[in-house]
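Handout, page 2. Input:
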Amino acid sequence: MKDLDPSRIGIIGPGRLGTAFAYKFGRDGKKIQIYHHDIELCRAINRDHLNPRHFTESLADILGGLDAVPRLSDDVTATNDLEEFVQTNDYILLSVTMNRLPELMNYLRPLIARKEGGTCLISPIKGLASDEKTRELITPSQLIHSRLADLKQKYVLVSVGGPFFDVDIALGNPTCLSVAGGKHAAITVMRLLKVNRRELNAYYNYDSVGIEACGALKNVVANLKGATDQLDMGRSIGGTIFARAGVEIRSLTKLLGGSFQAFHSQAGVGDLYITVSSLASKNYRYGKYFYEFYTGNPIETSLAALKKIDGTPEGPNTIRNVHRYLEKKNMYSPIFRSAYAIFNEGDSKEAIREQIIEACQFDRRTREYIGPFSRALYRVIPNLWYRRESGFLSRIIL
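Output:
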């Protein structure tokens, strides 16, 4: 899509990640406009050049006090006028949670249709949506394309994957991203991101669905790892969770329409590594707090854990959607099934421990490699050749 203005960038959603990108693009000399429906929040951002709702307190804790927190650039402004926002900005970063994306697309669709020029949508969203009736899973890019199916000439879409933490983007720490989508649009977005490569670099990946699936599923693994690390289970089991989760992520990614290679990219193994191994991860902290506060009531415990976290960890919502999909496909997935049971089915702390041991130590699969017969069938019927939870195919060695 030609003649898009790269000097102005819009950000929908002044949460942690949206604010982090506002800091980054502001340092790069771009004119940034943040959209949020709350006019009082917009006034506060415009007045103080800080986000009073998200991120500022976290930065103050890291930097040693509120006075040390950097202000947003004078070129960063906030507005609650969505129509003016869409008309003004040709590049729009969607910094919302997956469960809010359908509603946002309902608002954006008529505005993009009325706009004289085109729009490049940039999606760093990490989550999966589930249709309540069909139980099919879709990634953010698949949802966006379905909602804008008759506006193909009016927009392009670029997906952004990790590994990154919002705090590193905000403070200009060295970070590398994965960028996927149509090659011309993706390369243009990479140029926007790579103004200062000492801070941020980006690599191209052709597989939007793959990097989105990896980015969503690793959050569930981080929930599980956060809980596991609160148990006295030694230091070895974390490696098993990491490795066996990779097997399941690859299979699910393929079923969702991505490729096996996605897991071996930055957005796959790179993002999984940092998310399961750092307190900077909201999803790791969620698992940690969930176990610490566990009462036997998963809803009550989840609410207590969420109160301790600035921002929304995507893992809890993702695992519920994934579980419905696993049930529909009769898919063998011990790591993800155990995560669903731990965070959604009330029991005891002892039961959490047993769920983790069962998933890691009693996997029905006995080998780490894919044999020649399975490799051949993966090529012929890639969306059908996977181990089932029950029935005849559950006994076949894959």
